[in-house]
Design goal:
mainly alpha, Complex1_LYR_ETFRF1_LYRM5, Electron transfer flavoprotein regulatory factor 1
Length: 88
């Protein structure tokens, strides 16, 4: 792996580990899957392929962030906007 990309890969891994703490199926489930994916791709040497994998990882990060924001939004909506049909 090119040394310039090594830092990006490590940073991506750390960010995904951090985001995985709140994963709905549990942090252990997420961490095992994350480790398996990174180990599966550890022998990739082509810088272009590494960049593609980094881009995919960043996409996963954005999807996780969207999932968490949606979950928070739904929780707040339930908390503050109860159904008006039940108040008869």
């Amino acid at each position: 792996m090119a040394n310039s990309l090594r830092g990006e890969v490590l940073n991506l891994y750390k960010n995904l580990l951090y985001l995985g703490r709140d994963y709905p199926k549990g942090a252990d489930y997420f961490n095992k899957r994350l480790k398996n994916v990174f180990l599966k791709n550890k022998d990739v040497k082509d810088p272009e392929k590494i960049r593609e994998l980094i881009a995919r990882g960043e996409f996963v990060m954005k999807e996780l962030e969207a999932l968490y924001f949606l979950r928070k939004y739904r929780a707040m909506k339930q908390r503050y906007y109860s159904d008006t049909k039940d108040t008869n």
